[in-house]
């Protein structure tokens, strides 16, 4: 069983090591996963929160001059803030997506801009870049060609579902299309941004898709039953009013809202925003 203890570099395969950051929580699981790909030349995926100890662990896991690239799946604050510290400590090249909206407090300047179809070529590996919007508009996944491992950031997670929050660039319709695209890839494993390695990628993607389809149907049914309802009321119907901590109730509201926005675009419901009432079209 690979180690999810924060700060400990755990070998997942001949080419991949993982270090979990010390930021466990309801949205981060055991913490953000930082991946080290390669041995002689290393690409670091998602340096995580700005924590000196975590960066020391990343640098300590390789000879620092071997760290050649720092790459980000997206710019949510549990994935990127250690970037500057890590780049400074290693002299690595910062490789970032050139398009797609960034979070407003991200002040990183890439050394190299990448886009879908590009690849990072190390002496032992190739990492293909996939643009996978939905969780965030600038979300990328990276496919390790030699092992068919997909680094999914927050697009696919272990132990929880990905949050699609329209207030932070999340788009449910786009997200579902991304999942359908990922399903077509030949994958051996998924290395998610949070949680352990997923050994059955296709079953996981099927589960993610059916979870969303069921939720969408449930939202439609509840709206028909009620005639009209606010997001808060739908969350109460779906999850019950007690038992969930407040931050998870809020996240549940984002999900329901994201489904409503998608259904509105499809002409199936009418309404305007997260606080207004929605009704069947
Ligand atoms: Zn995350």
How would you sum up this structure, described in words?
There is one protein chain. By secondary structure, the chain is of the alpha/beta class. 30% of the residues lie in helices and 21% in strands. It is built from six helices and 15 strands. A seven-stranded mixed beta sheet has the order 1-2-3-4-5-6-7, with helices on one face. A five-stranded mixed beta sheet has the order 8-9-10-11-12, with no helix packed on it. The mean pLDDT is 94. The site of zinc ion (ZN) has 8 residues, from loops.
Summary, kept brief:
The chain is an alpha/beta fold and 281 residues long. The chain contains six helices and 15 strands. Residues 28, 32, 76, 78-79, 154, 193-194 line the site of zinc ion (ZN).
């Amino acid at each position: 069983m690979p180690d999810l203890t924060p700060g400990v570099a755990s070998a997942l395969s001949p080419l991949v090591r993982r270090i979990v950051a010390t930021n466990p929580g309801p949205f981060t699981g055991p913490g953000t996963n930082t991946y080290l790909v390669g041995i002689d030349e290393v690409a670091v995926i998602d340096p995580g929160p700005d924590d000196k100890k975590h960066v020391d662990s990343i640098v300590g896991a390789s000879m620092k001059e071997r760290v050649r690239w720092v790459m980000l799946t997206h710019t949510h604050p549990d994935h990127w803030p250690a970037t500057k510290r890590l780049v400074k400590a290693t002299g690595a090249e910062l490789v970032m997506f050139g398009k797609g909206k960034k979070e407003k407090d991200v002040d990183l300047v890439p050394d190299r801009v990448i886009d879908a179809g590009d690849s990072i070529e190390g002496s032992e590996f190739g990492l293909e870049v996939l643009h996978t919007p939905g969780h965030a508009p600038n979300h990328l996944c990276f496919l390790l060609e030699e092992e068919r491992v997909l680094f999914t950031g927050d697009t696919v997670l272990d132990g929880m579902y990905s949050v699609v929050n329209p207030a932070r660039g999340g788009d449910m319709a786009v997200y579902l299309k991304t999942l359908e695209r990922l399903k077509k890839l030949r994958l051996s494993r998924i290395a998610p941004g949070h949680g352990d390695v997923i050994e059955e990628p296709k079953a996981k993607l099927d589960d993610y898709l059916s979870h969303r389809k069921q939720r969408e149907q449930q939202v439609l049914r509840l709206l028909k039953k009620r005639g009209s309802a606010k997001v808060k009321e739908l969350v109460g119907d779906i999850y019950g009013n007690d038992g969930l901590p407040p931050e998870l109730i809020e996240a549940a509201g984002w999900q329901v809202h994201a489904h409503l926005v998608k259904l509105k675009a499809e002409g199936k419901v009418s309404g305007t925003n997260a606080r207004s009432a929605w009704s069947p079209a």
